[in-house]
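Reopening this ticket.

The earlier resolution said the output was attached, but the attachment link was broken on my side. Pasting everything inline this time so it's all in one place.
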Amino acid sequence: MGFVEPDLPVVDMAQWSRGSRSERIRPMARHWAEVGFGTPVVLHLFYVGKICLYILGGWLFALTTSGIDGFTRVGSWWSEPIVFEKVVLYTLLFEVIGLGCGFGPLNNRFFPPMGSVLYWLRPKTIRLPPWPGRIPLTEGDTRTPVDVALYAALLALLVWALLADGTGPVPELDTTVGLLPVWHIVAILGVLAVLGLRDKVIFLAARGEVYATLAVTFLFAGADVLVGSKVVFLVIWMGAATSKLNHHFPFVVSTMMSNSPVMRPRWIKRKFFENFPDDLRPGRWSRIVAHTSTAVEMLVPLVLFCSGGGWPTTVAAVVMLLFHLGILTAIPMGVPLEWNVFMIFGMGSLFVAHADIGLGDLGDPVPVAVLFAVLAGTVAAGNLFPRKVSFLPGMRYYAGNWDTTLWCVKPSAAAKIGTGVVAIASMPQAQLERYYGKDRAQIPLYLGYAFRAMNTHGRALFTLVHRALPEGREDEYTITDGERICSTAVGWNFGDGHMHNEQLIAALQRRCRFEPGEVRVILLDAQPIHRQEQAYRLVDAATGEFERGVVRVADMVTRQPWADDLPVHVDGAK
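Inline output:
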């Protein structure tokens, strides 16, 4: 890859353009296998710089605390409990503004590189309430001045808390600085809860399942704060490991390693596949890495939680440090980079610096037990009923098993979206054409198809395109990943199909009044952990669902990325 220019596949455009979609994906998949997206080095350095600025910001907020002094004497204060509290709230602020997950060109955001705050401080943008028919005062899908005020209040409350001082000595935590005043936490959680009921996207973008849950532990007293936070970390790690007990995760590993800027030699990347270039299913290396990392994420946190210090804690901490650095240096799609930095810091602050504080130090075990039950129950529900629970609170991080969608959009429908929706970013195709030029834009578009196809669900999605569109008329549509539509329409995306399902389709239909056949959407649910199949639905934006059925996981994992001929088991047509 070049320093400034992307390393894109070289193809005979005239000949390549004449091929079928499957034939055009094939060279892109082979390119992805040994190069990845071909991101120029300067963009990777840009993200490294962003990580450094994130760390600097947390550092400076910590120093605003009375009793925390010395920019260069970080060793004397980094493990103070109030510093951990502030890092949690600072990271929540960083994410909910839009600077964290889903930021920038590596998430197909070019102009501008973020949405979030640019949308959520603007009335008449789209909001997606989670239970509009059940929770009073949450109906509708249009952002009002009240929603804008609530979001602004959340930002202000977070900054206020980050500038606050501690409450004074807490003997159980061996600190004279103390903890953040509880009223700050109550106010932040209260506003975030109301916002989340009005718009689930903001709650998910804040990574509420991590940072809001940790903030709940700040309502506890004494040592219960740190023990509760340790429990949250334990559930995050073990919940994520549980979700990776599937046939999809090795495909994630091979795809992520191919895109890693650290794995530079192509011969190494080829080793992650069964037999490059003809068989691009995950090879032995991918399976070894997948199974090893799942075991590490499942078992090592238990050692951290139970060891209480000494060499077992040290060894476990080093292993988890390497685990998160491995994810971080791969710069995965969706770019959850700061989250991995936070997990490293949290591990050190909670499990190393306060290794001696454990379950035996709990003053009131009931709140911690209730919190654990709620978190573990949510993870279980997310794996059993993925259509009902987002992959974020379900802790299905990078498991390869997500709800996904493909949107088939006619040019006339794209124009309606451009004029009918209050948005900052233009439609994905227009962004690609602006960045790459109209002719070359087809290459990154198909590299995006290849990324989706390298994961198991891509085979099903491109098979279902043939069922969703009229025979012989597929060329009339632009096939767009639902994440990109979501990015344009609601201002944030991070691999969660719950944000671009029927609810978003209905919101766009009300604004754009698509004609029948102008927009067709393929919705593919994630695989329930106890069933080896994934349900799908085909929806016309104007007329509604017209087919549903299932595809079998066994059929996905045996096909090549360019396959679009999986067996489809139709439940019935409407």
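Reporter confirms the inline version is readable. The chain has a mean pLDDT of 94. The first strand starts at residue 273 and ends at 275.
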